[in-house]
Input
Amino acid sequence: MFVSLTNPPQKKTLWYLFLCALWLCVGCTSPYTTVRQKDTIPEYEAFIKKHPESQYLGAAKRRLEELHYQKAVEANTQEAYKDYLRAYPQGRFRNRAITQLELFAYRRARRLGGLRHYQAFLRRFPSGQFTQDVKERIEAIFFRKAKELKSYKGMRAYLKHFPNGRFRNQAMTQEREFAWKKIHNKVSAGKLRSFIRQYRSGKYIPEARKELDEYVYLDIESTGKWWLLKKWRREHPNHKWADRARKNIRIFRRIYPRLEKARRLISAGEATQAIRIYKRLYRSYKRKPIIAKLLKKDIEKHKLEGAVYN
Output
């Protein structure tokens, strides 16, 4: 028997079934729909806790993270961004949060302006957007402090830390000037040799070589070794002291054998004979400053002043 769907009782039954189905569907989604309407952190947290197996769990978590980050942006403080990163260490907005924290740290370092503050920034953000600027500021501060020391050590420290730095040429020039001044506080042949060996060429080197030649000559002259003077003169034929060397070579050749004989006698315990030689030499050459100085040095070394001069 065919039943018409236009029958009123059957129509009523169909509408009832449709409304039941609609109610069931709405009932399943109504908690998330309510949360979406309120759109607050507490609502999403409560939903996630009460419905851990909901099909909307992922969407709820994503929205909750967005709200946490939005909260940090609105507060715009270091603590707010740190709170977000503590909650979502690998979150979608992690890089943005770190960028903002870096900006806060950079502004603080700029405000304080100290070397240690910039270094602390670099330790925290070794490869951030402000890294290059901070490195340049550290270098500038380091160079300024090195200059304030007014010492070649400060410039050397700068060049050690920044071998290819922006102030490299200035540092090298000032290091050389400070080193040259230090040498002349108490100049010696050894210090001059060290200076020439270190800097090799450029400013002060010609002057240093000239001074070294003179100090070497004076050192040789103080020994009385005529053959060394002869060698020096051969190496410096046009030096202003070449004529002085020639004269002293002639004198030293004459007295050096007797001086050596007196030294051998002292070593052998024959002080009496040695004193006679020193006396004769001193009487003959006491008016020649170079020879007198050499003799006095030798006499003082052997403690014969009383015996020779009286």
Observations:
- The chain has a mean pLDDT of 86.
- The two ends are 165 Å apart (CA to CA).
- The chain has four domains: 38-43+63-112, 126-183, 186-223, 226-310.
